[in-house]
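Troubleshooting: if your tokenizer reports a length mismatch, compare your output against this known-good record of 189 residues.
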Amino acid sequence: MKILIITGPPYSGKGTQCEILEKTLGYQHISTGERIRAEKDNNTKIGAVMKDFEEKGMLVPDEIMKDLLRQILVENNQEKGIILDGYPRTPPQVQTLVNLLQENKQEINQVVNIVVPKAELLKRAKERAKNSKRKDDRDERVHIKRIQVFEENTQPAINYLKTIMDVEDIDGIGSIEAITKRIQKNLKK
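Known-good structure output:
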């Protein structure tokens, strides 16, 4: 099974790009954010623990994410490939992912990092809030908190990934189609 990671800040368009890549590559799109919401909605044991963290715009603790990731890998082990969207988000999660994959004799095949300036992220957050049914999307403080959490936790995880493998930085400004073309061009490498 091939493993592709799409990373970048909140509101960078990761989910949109993952949906497009899912169709073009035939890989299973795994959004950890969506999975966390599903776990919460279904009142699972993991979901109950995750609820408070997500609603405050905070990251779910690494140990809980490790359990969830292990479950995701088992559920998708027959897929052609998976696209991880929103994981790993901290340096320890990078190491957890690498360790879990080594246990299963798998590896990360490629990492794409969508780069978008902070001012553009805040603009996109406001736009998304207009159409979103999610309560947390309508709170500007949560937008700012999500970006801050990204800068403090996920950017160091991306930097760590760059020390252990190739990470393709992709310009996330422009139309959805233009960004998709940039990503696909880099996937061909």
